Amino acid sequence: MNSSYAASPFALVRSAVEHRDLIGDLVRREFIGRYRGSILGVGWALFSPLLMLAIYTFVFSVAFNARWGAGDESKATFALVLFSGMIVHAFFSECLTRAPGLIVTQPNFVKKVLFPLEILAWVTVFSAALHFVVSFLILMVFCMVVGVTVHPLTMLVPVALLPLFALTLGLTWILAAFGVYLRDLSQAMGMVTTIALFLAPVFYPISALPEGFQRMISWNPLTFPITQLRDLMLWGKPMLWEQWAMHLLIGTAFCFVGFWWFQKTRRGFADVL
After folding, report:
1. What single string gives the DSSP state of each residue in the chain?
2. Which of 30, 96, 110 is nearest to 258 (CA)?
3. For the ranges 156-170, 203-217, 236-250, 257-271, which has the lowest average pLDDT?
4. What is the Cβ-side half-sphere exposure of residue 108, based on CA atoms within 13 angstroms?
5. Of 125, 137, 156, 167, which residue has the fewest beta carbons closer than 10 angstroms?
6. Pairwise CA distance, residues 45 & 41, whole Å
7. Is pLDDT at 104 greater than 80 in this prediction?
8. Which range in 34-38, 107-111, 180-184 is most confidently predicted, on average pLDDT?
9. Angle, helices 223-233/241-265, rounded to nearest 10 degrees
């Protein structure tokens, strides 16, 4: 088999290292190009999450009178808790909704025999991660503005999100490969990510649910990273290392399986496109 299509974990790491400069260039082009031609430009990366924060805060803290258990909870506190969950979901959602069209929308890359198609998943995930970083910085600034303490354990947030990053990368490879053959997959992902949003503790605490539903919500891949981000940053609770290790193991397994599946199916991309 062509070494370019090697599907081992070693090949995954080697591909990322060898093409790191190309990945970096494509990520920058993707991030900046998304806003090229608009009046606000990259400012949309700041404006969009702020607008959604305002809307969701009004709907759930005012219209629905939702709370996180504290009787003296302010609108600002609710907004911070809500926004911290929203930005994790936004990262996951952006990758999954774009993944099925990743190869279909890049036919020129498919026809270039020497182009490393596998790096497109890296580009998608890193681009979404950049948007997450922007939103996370907004979250930190908002904390300082309203006087909410940002705990030192916040430095562990990147570590806490590592399992989700690995899982998302693997799912992106899987969906990108399936998306070549199943064009309806792009339409389905919007519904899937919406379901994932409402079945994750974004708008409500897990403790507000019956015990049976709590177990179901815990299977959502967004539940652990969302709760860990809040625990570390807003509430100063320690990392749950045992659960983190289990999620990292699962995420890494998905990452390797996704890469393997992508490499094994990519020979047929050109024929379909």
Report:
1. --GGG--SHHHHHHHHHHTHHHHHHHHHHHHHHTTTTSSSGGGHHHHHHHHHHHHHHIIIIIIS----S-TT--HHHHHHHHHHHHHHHHHHHHHHHHGGGTTTT-HHHHH-TTS-TTHHHHHHHHHHHHHHHHHHHHHHHHHHHHT----GGGGGHHHHHHHHHHHHHHHHHHHHHHHHH-TTHHHHHHHHHHHHHHTSTTSS-GGGS-HHHHHHHHTSTTHHHHHHHHHHHTS-PPP-HHHHHHHHHHHHHHHHHHHHHHHHHGGGHHHH-
2. 96
3. 203-217
4. 0
5. 137
6. 8
7. yes
8. 180-184
9. 140
pLDDT at 19 over 90: yes
* Whole-number Å distance between alpha carbons of 249 and 239: 16
Q: What is the rounded CA–CA span in Å between residue 165 and residue 156?
A: 14
Cα dihedral 251, 252, 253, 256, rounded to 10, equals: 130
List of long-range contacts for 241-249, beta carbons under 8 Å, 24+ apart = 244/159, 244/160, 244/163, 247/163, 247/164, 247/167, 248/162, 248/163, 248/166
160-199: per-residue pLDDT in tens? 999 999 999 999 999 999 999 998 898 899 999 999 999 9
The pLDDT of residue 252: 97
Report the chain's terminal Cα–Cα distance, integer Å: 22
Could you give the CA distance from residue 132 to residue 55 in angstroms, rounded to a whole number?
19
Closest CA to 106 of 17, 19, 176: 176
- The answer to whether 139 and 80 are in contact (CB under 8 A) is yes
Cα–Cα distance measured from residue 128 to residue 84, given in angstroms and rounded to the nearest whole number: 15
